[in-house]
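Format notes (please read before filing issues)

Several people have asked whether sequences and structure tokens are stored in separate files. They are not. Every record keeps both together, in the order shown below: the sequence lines, then the token lines. Line labels are part of the format and must not be stripped during preprocessing.
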Amino acid sequence: MNEIRSITKTLKVVLITFAFINCSLYSYAFNKNKIFVATTASNSTPIGKYLYLLVDKESRFNESNITNDDTAFKLQKKDIPKMDVKDGTSWLNFSVLNATQHQDLFLDIQYSNISEISLYRKIDNKLVLIQRAGNSIKPELQAQKRAFAFRLRLPPSDTGIYYLKIKSYHPLFLPMFIKDTTSLDESINSGNLIFGLYFGIILSLLLYNIFLLISTKDLSYLFYVIYLFFLGFAQVTVSGYGYTYFWPSHPDVNRYMLLLTSCTAGITGILFAIFFLRIAYYYKTFVFLFSIVIFLFFVAIIATISGNNQLGYKVIDYAQLAGGVLLILISFLIGRKGYKPAYFYLIAWTAFLAGVIVISLRNIGIVPYTTFSTYVLYLGSAIEAIFLSTALADRINSLRKEKQESQVYALKISRENETLIKEQNVVLEQKVTERTNELVSTNMQLNHTLAELKDAQTQLVEAEKMASLGQLTAGIAHEINNPINFVKSNIKPLNLDIDDVFEVVAMYRKLHNANKEIIPSLLQEVDRKQEEIDMEFVKKEIRQLIKGIEEGAERTAEIVRGLRTFSRLDEGELKVANVHEGLNSTLVLLRNSMPGYLRVEKQFNAKGDIECFPGKLNQVFMNIINNAIQAIDEKQVKQEQEWILISTVDVPGNKMQVRIKDSGIGMNEQVKHKIFEPFFTTKSVGVGTGLGMAIVFKIIEEHHGKIEVESEPGKGAEFILTLPYIHPVT
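Then the structure lines:
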């Protein structure tokens, strides 16, 4: 047995020696490339330093001409090569010697976000396609393996030269290993297990915090649940499970989803931090800084959607760096102010950033590529989520404690207030009694003053009525005096003419009793008398005098009718009256006060018959038209013909409008706003009481109508009265 073992060891040494010799000869024969020797101990050794890279930005090379000039390839110096987003194609060249007893080996690329990748083997100076994959094409082997795993088809003791053609919309990070089937399965299974644990933690925290959100209704939990969702979704996308399980039939989605999920996780994380740390309360300036970071995330999203992934990744790198530094700084500063949850947030964010730092150190070769350095980001992310959940719970406990303390303090204050109230009640009762007596006395004085004010108001209103009545009486006296004087002046000449006619008639009557002999002479006397008095002229003059008397009587009757229409002794009763008749009667009574250059134009288009208090409504017309006449009379420079336009029109709502517009001096805004106030007047002292327009407003209000004024200085004024046809009282 010992001899057999010795022979076996000797054979192994010989085989390995032969393999190395073969490898050296093969390396010399194939452009002297470094050859990776795959052994049972090299499963965890990255082959980055055995890779030769050619970046074909102009896409000049293809499968038929890439082997013509191997000198264009440059040997990589890192175990884990990293490349930015490229506009062209990247070619990788490497050689492998199978120094194991396994019949086949795999190329294991433990990076999930490669858009297109094709593996070729060089045989007889030609490239033969072994496998094509990538998450921008429909899945093949990656549907069975989480990462990209390519079968090399390399028997034991055989050496192969391979080419990788890579095109990616994302930055490339290439941890590449040569593994046998067992090692590959173990790597994939451990990766799935670790990610499953991480995803289970995130899912458990998500469901737990959703329950707390429903229970507490606290918005902090809402922002945290949203952040947890997008954080987990981003990790699912980065690890390749999103493409494998969620959108395998839509490979184009992966071009945008990696950056979009990272941006949304960053945005929601910052929003959660702003609300949870109460940054707006402690440091408002930082809210502005975080707004800039959020804006950068949106710029990255827009760049990605528009197809510029390279710009998107550059912007998101700056946004993540700035956001991470700001979150560390602000949580530390707020924690120093005594806000305890900020320290939990600081620990959580530090754990996450520690994972990011370890990943970065691994990528540049300072930290070795191990299981810990591969999955440390999951660990940091899980620790962050756990500590943030703890911070939220502590925040709730702090709020509950503060609430209890505030309740105890409120109870203490309540008891102190109760004692104080009891002590003050006695004093207050005395003061209330004294104050009540004072109020009773003051109330009596106020009632007496109110009675005096009512009497004064009644006297002022009566004074305004008497002033209007005096003006109306003067106008009526003048109006009636004109036709009466005309009648009186016609009576005397009419009497003289009638006397002459009676004298001629008397002379004719003498003819009946006279002798026939003297009749001719009497007729001659009658003719002389008729010639003397000019009988034809007398007849015409009598007709003219009678006509003048008739016109004077008619004018007097018109004035009396207008006065009756205006006064309406039954004004206290609500009845149907014609507005147009009221306006006409008002104009008749005011005719004497109108100057000769004033023209009144009427445009009556409304139906006119409304339920109203006619006398009061006529008083409104009287005050407004009289004010219009005075406003025209006050103009320093008058036109050749000034005017007042009175119009009526029906408006919707079973109402009518009366518009009274003049060409007077107008009003400014200050006067317009005060015109309906009692005792406000623009007239000289002693000319007006200032109650006319106040009474107008009161009367229109009694009719449930509306009065409006439109006026500008120098452009006249227009009063718009809107009155319902049916009074609401009825």
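For reference, the curators noted about this record: DSSP finds 16 helices and 19 strands in the chain. Residues 78 and 147 are 21 Å apart (CA to CA).
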